[in-house]
Amino acid sequence: MSGKRRGAPLSTRTPRVLRGAVIGSLAAAALGAAAGGALAQAPGAPSRPDPQRETEAAVADYNAGNLRAALVQFHDAAACGNRLAAFDYAMMLINGEGVTANVPEGLRWLRRAADAGMTQAQYVYGRMLDDGEFVARDPAAAHDWFLKAAQQGHVQAELALANQFLDERGTPRDNRQAFAWYKRAADAGEPVSQYVTASFYERGGDGVVRNLDIARAYYAAAAAQGDDAAALKYRELTAAQKAGPGGASAPKATGPSY
Fold first, then answer.
1. Where residue 11 sits, what CATH number does that domain have?
2. Whole-angstrom distance, CA of residue 217 vs CA of residue 238
3. Which residues are CB-neighbours of 108 under 8 A, at least 6 positions away?
4. Which of 10, 29, 16, 34 is nearest to 92 (CA)?
5. Beta strands per DSSP E along 12-60
6. Is 42 inside a domain boundary?
7. CB of 141 closer than 8 Å to CB of 175
8. What pTM was computed for the model?
9. pLDDT tens-digit map of 64-89
10. 45 in a domain, yes or no?
11. What is the DSSP secondary structure assignment for residue 205, as one 8-state letter?
12. Are residues 25 and 104 in the same domain?
């Protein structure tokens, strides 16, 4: 595919992801998906805090604005192996929330959470590497982290990975791989990916069979989430189909832009 890709809504600066990440991850943590779990204790040993409960309490304090209490509890839970707590503690250190900012220590905890397999940490660390924020810019290393998170179903990592394949950033250009990851994110409901996936189907090529009905469906899905450009594309394709081959409303041959 050629042309300029539509800008993805990834401009939010990386350090300010904590509040949404905490809220979004809490349900998973409660099911044991994001938490590392409490360490085993020997019989008769002094009772240690449950890292799961410490993390949940920290989330409550953070959302209530009790940042210092949240910081302490995130640290304690992270020290006991809770990946979500390690990530949130890292973000608070980097942001300087409840404490004077300490970026090197925050990066250490962020990397610890990423190495433990937490997808949000992998994605955020990848974003830092891709943007050169707080760390030396390294798109190839970012690609590796995006891939780790995307393979576990992290939707924003799927979008970031697709963008890299399309832009030839950190990896050789591969439009087929780009399409595969855009479609995967689109099917998970990500609106920018829905628009770009529709564009692939509208134009065809790169292993994608041109199909205007599928294109309209993806444009409609993005439009339903407030994408005005997608709504316009849906109306244009619908009008073109009604006009028939060669009609005045037929789509222009220039193809979509990304």
1. 1.25.40.10
2. 10
3. 90
4. 16
5. none
6. no
7. no
8. 0.79
9. 999 999 999 999 999 999 999 999 99
10. no
11. B
12. yes
